[in-house]
């Protein structure tokens, strides 16, 4: 099997040993090993990366480790599986040659405020550069952010060109309807004191809840208060930039933005029970328009499937909505979610504004969202929203009218609130329609 692997994952010779370096006993991480000294310190929010220090969440050199959890969110389990299956050498270190960001982002003054970015490492894309000396000395420090360039092709963009709403310019929007973008992937790195503060809870209470409600997956959360960085096993985010990324961080640059929470059913498969993909596409259109006017467009795509409840819960809720007496109505929309999940929503937008601080954005000129939770969270973090742009009615799919009415009634930004009678009319399709 190893012959199919890229060269960098091949062991030097013979079968891969999945025993940790130099010892075969299980190493418990719940307490510091005797004589190992203090972990390398992290001074979160230090302006200079050398003073800040690297976040080390790799397991190859326990003496360098200063974070709880591992890299790659939930994919860390696949890495463990690859080691167990003897497909990956347990001490493999990535070769970072030529992996540096394809566009420069930061540093911005916001990086030097420990309270502004608490859910990922602002230096995450620059580790190969700013910690080059330690990497050369054998430390295993991994990037938690990567920045690259791409072309994207969406049928909705081509439709917008055909309808005359967008015109190809040959630079950003090409004649075939393809769009040049810069994109970034960000893995979560939670600075626990900062996350606790953002939610208004004590750090010990946050650590205890994370420990207990992950069935004790991370004992260091309660035994190692000295470790304050945590790489949670959750999805991160993808950023798509339209226009010149170098214009970020300048107050005069106008910004258009869509903050989008993942919805696989709609985003990828075009399921019509919600407005997710139409809103995403509408956001992309506004972003292209802004880039063509000399500003920057930004789509923030958060991996928070089904209001961060997950797709199984989401599908259970769909069934409950469509089978309830009286049919699928806006009046019962949130109640059905609450019956199954216990809450209406677990996305908690409190951490979402971090990415704007990371990009040096203090003002969003056109915000393609109707969510009051998103706009409130941004404003609470001091980010100005000049104009909130609702989705045009003609882009709302038929079966999604229930969701749209329910959200408007609950406080979503809209020029016209639905009336009470309207909310009780069944508008969603039945299960077998
Ligand atoms: Zn959706």
TrEMBL record:
Q: Which Pfam families match?
A: GTP_CH_N, GTP_cyclohydro2
Q: Which UniProt keywords apply?
A: GTP-binding, Hydrolase, Nucleotide-binding
| Location of the GTP cyclohydrolase II domain | 246-390
Q: Which domain of life is it from?
A: Bacteria
Q: What is its EC number?
A: 3.5.4.25
Asked if the Swiss-Prot or TrEMBL record annotates the protein with the keyword Acyltransferase, the reply is no
Which terms does the record give in the GO molecular function aspect? GTP binding; GTP cyclohydrolase II activity
Ranges for the GTP cyclohydrolase N-terminal domain? 25-213
Cross-referenced InterPro entries: GTP_CH_N, GTP_cyclohydro_II, RibA, RibA-like_sf
Q: What biological-process terms (Gene Ontology) are attached?
A: riboflavin biosynthetic process
The answer on whether this UniProt entry bears the keyword Secreted reads: no
Which PANTHER family does its entry note?
PTHR47259, URACIL-REGULATED PROTEIN 1 (PTHR47259:SF2)
Q: What is this protein called?
A: GTP cyclohydrolase II
**What organism is recorded for this protein?**
Vineibacter terrae
The taxonomic lineage of its organism, from the top, reads: Bacteria, Pseudomonadati, Pseudomonadota, Alphaproteobacteria, Hyphomicrobiales
């Amino acid at each position: 099997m190893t012959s199919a692997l890229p060269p960098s994952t091949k062991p030097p010779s013979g079968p891969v040993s999945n025993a940790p370096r130099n010892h075969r006993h299980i190493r418990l991480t719940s307490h510091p090993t005797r004589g190992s000294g203090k972990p390398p310190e992290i001074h979160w929010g230090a302006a200079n990366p050398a003073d800040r220090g690297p976040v080390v969440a790799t397991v190859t050199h326990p003496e360098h480790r200063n974070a709880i959890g591992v890299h790659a969110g939930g994919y860390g389990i696949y890495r463990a599986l690859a080691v167990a299956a003897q497909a990956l050498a347990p001490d493999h270190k990535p070769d970072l040659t030529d992996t540096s960001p394809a566009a420069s982002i930061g540093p911005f003054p916001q990086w030097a405020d420990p309270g502004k970015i608490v859910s990922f490492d602002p230096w995450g894309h620059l580790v190969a550069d700013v910690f080059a000396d330690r990497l050369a000395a054998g430390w295993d420090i991994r990037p938690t952010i990567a920045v690259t360039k791409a072309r994207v092709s969406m049928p909705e963009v081509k439709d917008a060109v055909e309808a005359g709403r967008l015109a190809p310019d040959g630079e950003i929007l090409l004649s075939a309807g393809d769009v040049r973008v810069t994109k970034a992937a960000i893995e979560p790195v939670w600075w626990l004191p900062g996350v606790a503060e953002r939610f208004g809870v004590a750090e010990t209470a946050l650590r205890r809840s994370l420990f207990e409600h992950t069935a004790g997956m991370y004992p260091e959360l309660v035994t190692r208060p000295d470790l304050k960085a945590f790489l949670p096993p959750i999805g991160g985010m993808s950023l798509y930039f339209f226009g010149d990324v170098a214009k970020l961080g300048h107050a005069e640059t106008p910004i258009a933005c869509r903050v989008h929470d993942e919805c696989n059913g709609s985003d990828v498969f075009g399921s019509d029970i919600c407005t997710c993909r139409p809103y995403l596409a509408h956001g992309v259109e506004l972003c292209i328009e802004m880039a063509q006017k000399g500003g920057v467009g930004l789509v923030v795509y958060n991996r928070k499937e089904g209001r961060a409840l997950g797709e199984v819960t989401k599908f259970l809720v769909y069934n409950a909505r469509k089978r309830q007496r009286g049919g699928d109505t806006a009046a019962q929309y949130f109640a059905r979610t609450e019956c199954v999940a216990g809450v209406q929503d677990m996305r908690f937008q409190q951490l979402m504004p971090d990415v704007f601080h990371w990009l040096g954005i203090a003002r969003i000129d056109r915000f393609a969202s109707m969510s009051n939770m998103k706009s409130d969270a941004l404003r609470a973090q001091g980010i100005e929203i000049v104009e909130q742009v609702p989705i045009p009615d003609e882009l709302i799919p038929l079966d999604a009218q229930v969701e749209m009415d329910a959200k408007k009634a609950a406080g979503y930004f809209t020029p016209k609130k639905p009336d009470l009678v309207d909310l009780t009319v069944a508008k969603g399709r039945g299960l077998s329609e």
